Amino acid sequence: MAVERPAAADEVSDDPELPDYPGAATGTGAWLATHGYSLGAAALVVLTALLVWRIMARTSQG
Amino acid sequence: MAQWSDLIVKKLFDSGVDAHDLSGLKPGMTGQDFEAALGLFLRRSEAFEQIRDLIPLTSRVPGVSGPQTQTWYDNVASTFERVTEIIHSSLMEEFHYNRLAVSDAKEAYGRLLQMAGLPRGQRLVYATTNYDALGELALLELGARVDTGEPSRLYGGNAMGLDVAGLLEGMGRSTPVLHLHGKAGWYRNKNGLVEVRDVQQHHPSNGTPVVMLPDPAKSYSGNDVLALLWAQFEEAVNNAQKVLVLGHSLHDDQLMRVLKGMPDRKKLAITFWAATESEAAVQLAWLQDQLTRDPSYFAVRFAAKLDPLEWQHLEAWLSSGQRPPTK
């Protein structure tokens, strides 16, 4: 199972909720696009912890 | 946590290292006691190493045998080292990905993301203090393009060059995964580079593990990888529409500092669970004392199957921001 790196920063996102960068299609605003997505709209930050997990394949060491 | 604590204690006993006085670890500790004891041990271990240069000076003290003090110091330092090695080795054994039940986690996270309206983890930042890869593997299975900063590799292989800078910038295309306490398999080599190694057994030749071991007063200062991850975590928390804490005791000074610094704590939801109602009430009172009543608090269990009755209020908060009813 491979863990892939995300697409390059200037690749166009397929997320319809991400903002369009003015001029990105014509190249005039490319410098904006390379800065990637500004953080404002993380819909959710989930913080999980060790203590939450009871889901382990084995519960004790042999 | 109790499971890991007991594993460490068992390994210490098996190794013949007389470590109880040094580590304070014993069988059957609660998670909180374990973290406190381990934290104290780690700080002592570091402090003990730092006085190495001073030991020869004790020979100037009248009545003190320099060579005897040096021998004592070397013995204790070696015990500290051995105990630390056992902790690292148990960490690898306990949290290596082979031991994880990804299908259960996939089911639980799948339901959770469905509630949040983010089925593929888009516009989600996933932060964890877990050392294992369970969360990201589950997200991967759900179709998310997770980014932990690890280079492309096949599991079973090693890869150089962990790069955790700019993970948030990929949001929308990928799901940033922030391992705030590091991860099993991250090793700093002698040149200072962090490698991602697929090893099930810890060996000192792999390098120094990039992990923050449990300690309520732990600090990530001096660790560039962890400092970068924490900076991004803080940025994500301060800008997110919603922040959900899932099952963390929050007996962690650094985490509390970040959560208390949120511009609007009404965007924060915290889950907790205890075996009895009275224990749950104590937990809730402590959380409210720390973080006020602004966050929403939910008594829920996170397991493969999320009980619909238990989770209905959290589902309402996730989907529409509705606060839970007050008792």
List the helices and strands and how they pair.
The complex is a heterodimer of chains A (62) and B (327).
Chain A: E1 2-3, H1 30-33, E2 44-48
Chain B: H1 2-15, H2 20-23, H3 31-50, H4 66-95, H5 102-116, E1 124-128, H6 134-141, E2 146-147, E3 153-154, E4 175-179, E5 182-188, E6 194-196, E7 208-211, H7 224-239, E8 243-246, H8 253-260, E9 268-272, H9 277-291, E10 296-299, H10 308-320
Parallel strand pairs in B: 1-4, 2-4, 8-9, 9-10
Antiparallel strand pairs in B: 5-6, 5-7
Helix pairs in contact in B: 1-4, 3-4, 5-6
Helical content of chain A stands at under 10%
The number of helices of chain A is 1
Taking the alpha carbons of the first and last residues of chain B, their distance comes to: 31 Å
Number of domains of chain B: 3
What oligomeric state best describes the polypeptide chains here? heterodimer
Shape of chain B: globular
Strand portion of chain B:
5-15%
**Largest interface (CB < 8 Å):** A-B, 40 and 70 residues
* Percentage beta strand of chain A: 5-15%
Number of strands of chain B: 10
Q: Percent helix among the residues of chain B?
A: 40-55%
In terms of per-residue confidence, which ranges of chain B show pLDDT below 50 for 5 or more consecutive residues?
Answer: none
Q: Main beta sheet of chain A, described? A: none
- The total beta strand count of chain A reads 2
Distinct helical segment count of chain B: 10
Poorly predicted parts of chain A: 1-40, 51-62
Structural class of chain B: alpha/beta
Q: State the separation between the terminal residues of chain A, measured CA to CA.
A: 27 Å
The topology string of helices and strands of chain A comes to EHE
Strand arrangement across the biggest beta sheet of chain B: 1-4-2
Please give a structural write-up:
The complex is a heterodimer of chains A (62) and B (327). The longest helix of chain A is centred in the middle third of the chain and has 4 residues, at 30-33. The radius of gyration of chain A is 19 Å and the shape is elongated. Chain A has one helix spanning 30-33; strands at 2-3, 44-48. Chain A is 6% helix and 11% strand. Chain A has one domain (19-62). Chain A is low in regular secondary structure and 62 residues long. With 327 residues, chain B is of the alpha/beta class. Chain B has three domains: 2-95, no CATH class; 102-238, no CATH class; 241-327, Rossmann fold (3-Layer(aba) Sandwich), CATH 3.40.50. In chain B, 44% of the residues lie in helices and 13% in strands. Chain B is built from ten helices and ten strands. Chain B has helices at residues 2-15, 20-23, 31-50, 66-95, 102-116, 134-141, 224-239, 253-260, 277-291, 308-320; strands at 124-128, 146-147, 153-154, 175-179, 182-188, 194-196, 208-211, 243-246, 268-272, 296-299. In chain B, the strands form three sheets. Chain B has a three-stranded parallel sheet with strand order 1-4-2. A three-stranded antiparallel sheet of chain B has the order 6-5-7. A three-stranded parallel sheet of chain B has the order 8-9-10. The mean pLDDT of chain B is 85. The chains are: A little secondary structure (62), B alpha/beta (327). The interface between A and B is large, with 40 and 70 residues.
